[in-house]
Amino acid sequence: MRPNKIREIWKQGGAVANGWLATPAAFSAEVMAHCGWDSVTVDMQHGLIDYQVAVSQFQAISTTDVVPMVRVPWLDAGLIMKVLDAGAYGVICPMINNGNDARMFAHYASYPPLGTRSFGPVRASIYGGADYTDKANDEIIRMAMVETKEGLEKVDEIVNTDGIDAIYVGPNDLANALGQRPTLDTENEVVLRAFETIIKACRSAGKPVGLHNGSAAYAVRMIKMGFQLVTVQSDAGILKNAASSIVAEIKGGVAKLDTSSY
User: Fold this and answer.
1) Rounded to whole angstroms, how far apart are CA atoms 68 and 64?
2) Is residue 212 annotated as a catalytic residue, yes or no?
3) Which of 15, 34, 88, 259 has the fewest Cβ atoms nearer than 10 Å?
4) Could you tell me the domains of the chain?
5) How far apart are CA 217 and CA 78, in angstroms?
6) Considering the entire predicted model, what is its pTM?
7) Which residues pair with 143 in a beta bridge?
8) What is the dihedral of CA 26, 64, 226, 220, to 10 degrees?
9) Residue-wise over 195-226: b if at least 16 C-beta within 10 A, else e?
10) Active-site residue among 34, 46, 107, 212?
């Protein structure tokens, strides 16, 4: 089976730079995959992406050695099975609140005896290799999102659940759940202390933790804090920010021109 590069980076003590797709287009996935990310995640929760588009994006990502991941909309056995069968090498599942949620997620995303995933890796066996079903449980990454008050309180039982490989922090939902203003790159002490609590639990369990960020500078700071996978914005956010900066520079330059000779 094709090795999962994310696991290899983590084994070496490194941090994963993860791209994020919100735009429903295979070309956007292909462009992002060629930008040097270690992995690229297809966002089926808050992105504008349905299943068929997600499959085409996995195919586009596969033009590189970047790891294809997906965030599913919910703890849904059928959809988790289908994105894995389509070739996702990592699944991020939102709103995992306790050990029972974590166990269900691990079961849905794993073949027996670890879980209850149905057999039928239609595209996954093409992407992963002929021995995919023998090694999928060891290579696929199951990341549980901790982003609620209950999830924070029960992060130890979540991260210590068999089959859960890592935690992914949703900073906006977590802030909201703690009565704080949701924002990326937060400086809110309540939220930062929650980050520290989650990092401590993951270190104790020997499992990595990831975070969504608004800027590269903040992502580097969070790596220093202890996060081992960082996402910065999304393809849509990057496009918006870059385009807005270009437009502002053009209009600012035009405003300074002497147009009296036109």
Assistant:
1) 10
2) no
3) 259
4) 5-256 (3.20.20.60)
5) 38
6) 0.96
7) 92, 166
8) -80
9) beebbebbeebebbbbbbbbeeebbeebbeeb
10) 46
